[in-house]
Design brief:
217 residues, alpha/beta, 6-stranded mixed sheet, two-stranded antiparallel sheet, 8 strands, 37% helix, 21% strand, globular, disordered C terminus
């Protein structure tokens, strides 16, 4: 059984055994840690288990490049201050109500956010939110910790993250030199910041699932 399956099993078993009703699940970790893959597979498993689920990515709250350019932050895109953090907190609070909510996504190829791309209707029981700063000890992100019903962190060693982040740029047809420069100039410092300011999660996955003790049902 591969590591991803173990991680999904740990979360799915806990959530499938929980009471019905709207729950918010945070899947967090540094950029390149595999959050999107885990969140997508978890949603698939929960939907198969008759617990309607949807994935909402934090990346839809990237500030537009024009705003970043005006503020001199274009080269820092992906850092916490290059997102609409307060707007994201408002979205999570709206999702908590159980009402229908629409969320944006980020198109990495075109480097733009697309508004209203994810629908979360009232019948969705489990909203899986994935992003770098969901359990992050800096304002306004630190407000989120109290809103999650379950939180999970992917903890990947920095050398592995570095390789993945360089590969991400290579996959967009950048040269090895440019891909390395982009990763080391911005992505890797952002990853280190996630690690340095991490808040404790209910689950931490570092190759094997390790649920925290006394996790509420």
């Amino acid at each position: 059984m591969n590591t991803l399956t173990l991680h999904v099993n740990a979360l799915a078993e806990h959530l499938l055994a929980s009471e019905h009703g709207r729950k918010l699940v945070a899947v967090t970790g540094a950029p390149g840690s595999g959050k999107s893959t885990l969140a997508t597979e978890l949603a698939r498993r929960l939907n198969l288990g008759k617990r309607p689920s949807v994935v909402v990515p934090m990346d839809g709250f990237h500030l537009d490049n024009r705003v970043l350019e005006d503020r001199g932050m274009q080269t820092r895109k992906g850092a916490p201050e290059t997102f609409d953090g307060p707007g994201f907190v408002r979205l999570i609070k709206a999702l908590k109500t159980g009402d229908e909510v629409f969320a944006p996504i980020f198109d990495r190829t075109r480097d733009i956010a697309i508004a209203g791309a994810v629908a979360v209707p009232p019948e969705v029981e489990i909203v899986i939110v994935e992003g770098n700063y969901l359990m992050f000890n800096e304002a306004p992100w630190s407000e989120l910790a109290a809103l999650w019903d379950v939180s999970a962190r992917l903890d990947v060693p920095m050398p592995e993250l570095r390789a993945r982040l360089i590969h991400r740029w290579l996959s967009l047809n950048y040269s090895r030199a440019v891909a390395t420069r982009r990763a080391e100039g911005n992505d890797i410092p952002n990853a280190q910041r996630v690690v340095d300011q991490a808040l404790e999660c209910d689950f931490t996955f570092d190759g094997q699932p390790h649920p925290a003790p006394n996790l509420p049902a």
